[in-house]
Amino acid sequence: MRYLMTTNASGSEPDETLYAEMGRFVEELTASGVLLATGGLEPGGVRVTSSGEEITVTDGPFAEAKEAVAGFALVEVRSREEALEVARRFRRIVGDGESVLQQVFGS
Question: Does residue 77 contact residue 3 with C-beta atoms inside 8 Å?
Fold first, then answer.
């Protein structure tokens, strides 16, 4: 089962301890085959919408900075519970804030 975890911007700057802890966490998950991809996202983005034949492109940002998705992790696990445990471990490392976990369907 694959899950996508997105994380909102926290508004605080990470310190060296956070970088070190996160580095170990990412290394462990990568070595075990759980972590498939991770990355940060630009704050603005581009919204592409369609209505009938009309396609509209709008430059961002679209949400308050504290609500904007700042990063993601794609994990492959055996169960929802395992995905939740990965998310819990991540939140313990980064501290206060919010992440959203969604199952990815298809291959």
Answer: yes
The pLDDT profile of the chain, 107 residues, written as one tens digit per residue, is: 999 999 987 777 778 888 899 999 999 999 999 999 999 888 778 889 999 999 999 988 776 666 678 899 999 999 999 999 999 999 999 888 889 999 999 86
Q: Give me the domains of the chain, ranges plus CATH numbers.
A: 2-104 (3.30.70.1060)
**CA-to-CA distance for 13 and 96, rounded, in angstroms?**
12
Instruction: Pick the closest to residue 104 from 81, 85, 83, 87 (CA basis).
Output: 83
